């Protein structure tokens, strides 16, 4: 979930705003449109420009046929080698900004929602992005969040967690230069080391189970992340 306004995100990441219609959301699900930050060449000047832009949270490169399930997470263990991901990891890296995310424990039909968050109001998750031309001639950007084995509070709730970067480390990850095989492995090593420093700052608390029903809630309602009363 991303509770920041577009101008707040562009200020933090020193990015131009290509997503002026973005509204802060406290509940996002795969296939929703999310804000991402990436660097790409300007069509007129050729210079690389960092932009905040919309992307479908369902990675869909042009060579992939329609998938039966959303491709919203990429495992760091294979992001540099799996044929679905490695091209985007080499040259389509992005940041997915978020305030936190939900995980669930318990049995189906009786799951308890947990809200996981960092020390500040913004986390920078490493992601990959791609673009494909739709039947109407327009271009659609889609993205996936890179995940890793969970640590600390995340590991108490779920075995995986997003790969988070310290905000002062996003520059290296967003560098638009295309990586070769060696460069991709070096980037994986960098992500593991950098995210090791963020993982201990992740905390969790239980929230109302109404977040279990994504379609039935108002995603712009900030009370969704309020902790349950003690006791």
TrEMBL record:
This is Abasic site processing protein. The lineage of its organism: Bacteria, Bacillati, Actinomycetota, Actinomycetes, Micrococcales. It holds the Pfam family SRAP. It comes from Agromyces mediolanus (Corynebacterium mediolanum). It is an enzyme of class 3 (hydrolase). Keywords: Covalent protein-DNA linkage, DNA damage, DNA-binding, Hydrolase, Lyase, Protease. Its EC number is 3.4.-.-. Belongs to the SOS response-associated peptidase family. GO terms for molecular function: lyase activity; peptidase activity; single-stranded DNA binding. It comes from the Bacteria. GO terms for biological process: protein-DNA covalent cross-linking repair; proteolysis. Signal peptide: none annotated.
């Amino acid at each position: 979930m991303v509770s920041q306004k577009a101008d707040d995100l562009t200020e933090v990441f020193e990015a131009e705003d290509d997503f002026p219609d973005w509204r802060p959301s406290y509940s996002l699900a795969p296939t929703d449109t999310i804000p991402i930050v990436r660097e790409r060449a300007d069509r007129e000047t050729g210079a690389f420009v960092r932009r905040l832009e919309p992307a479908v949270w369902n990675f869909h490169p042009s060579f992939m046929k329609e998938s039966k399930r959303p491709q919203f997470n990429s495992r760091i263990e294979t992001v540099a080698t799996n044929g679905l991901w490695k091209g985007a990891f080499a040259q389509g890296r992005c940041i997915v900004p978020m305030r936190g995310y939900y995980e669930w424990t318990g049995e189906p039909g009786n799951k308890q929602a947990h809200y996981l968050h960092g020390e500040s109001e913004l986390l920078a998750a490493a992601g990959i992005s791609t673009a494909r031309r739709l039947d109407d001639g327009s271009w659609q950007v889609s993205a996936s969040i890179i995940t890793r084995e969970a640590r600390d509070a995340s590991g108490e709730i779920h075995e995986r967690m997003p790969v988070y970067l310290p905000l002062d480390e996003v520059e290296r990850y967003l560098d638009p230069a295309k990586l070769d095989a060696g460069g991709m492995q070096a980037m994986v090593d960098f992500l593991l080391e950098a995210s090791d420093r963020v993982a201990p700052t992740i905390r969790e608390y239980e929230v109302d189970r109404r977040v279990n029903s994504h379609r039935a809630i108002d995603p712009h309602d900030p009370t969704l992340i309020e902790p349950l009363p003690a006791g």
